[in-house]
Amino acid sequence: RPIPNIGGIAIFWSVIGPIALALVGVVVAPEQLAEWAPAIAPHLERVAATQGDWLVIVTGALVLHLMGLYDDHRALSAWPKLALQLGVALATVLLSDVRLLASFLGDGGGELVSIVITVAWIVVVVNAFNFIDNMDGLAGGIGMIAALCFMVATILNGQWFIASALALLAGSLAGFLVWNIPPAAIFMGDGGSLFVGYILACMAARTTF
Questions:
Q1: What is the rounded average pLDDT of the residues 122-145?
Q2: Cβ atoms within 10 A of the Cβ of 83, count?
Q3: pLDDT tens for residues 74-86?
Q4: CA 200 to CA 137: how far, in whole Å?
Q5: CB-based burial of residue 64 (10 Å sphere; 0-12 exposed, 13-18 middle, 19+ buried)?
Q6: What Å distances lie between residue 98 and 46, 86, 180, 202, CA to CA?
Q7: Of 21, 37, 87, 143, which has the highest C-beta tally within 10 A?
Q8: 33 and 195 Cβ atoms separated by less than 8 Å
Q9: Among 41, 88, 70, 81, which residue's Cα sits nearest to residue 201?
């Protein structure tokens, strides 16, 4: 039976839409945002300092999502997909604070090691979710559980905005799973699996353990 594979569109916008609106609010009207949500007022300075990082992550997520949608419609070969994934991962690491082992082996060479490991981490996790998206409920279920686990870690550390992004991801995947459990009525496709893997990889790298 024909099953649509564009569930990734709903997953993507359920996560990126609120994040993008929050970024616009911080840039355009931070005072109004603090008035609407007083609890955010003490954190506005930190949000403003990291908005560039979030913009890079949102842009990287959009690029991989669009590539996945194209791949779902007209299959791409492996090498162009890998090249674009490497490009997005490298840009994310160089232009934002998404780093693993930032102080590994000290300064200088340690930073290079951190960059290489983080790029590899992002590409591996992105492809891992792409590969496990092969049966009803598997990628969505694992993604939701991983997002909730990382969310708990970030809440314990007081990383409220990373926790909020992970909550959005877990919620979007929970809503998707309603329609993806066997027998699935819709698939997330590459437009969803590449995005989920990328966001989880970035959020894990930004989580303080």
A1: 96
A2: 10
A3: 989 999 999 999 9
A4: 17
A5: buried
A6: 16, 15, 31, 6
A7: 143
A8: no
A9: 88
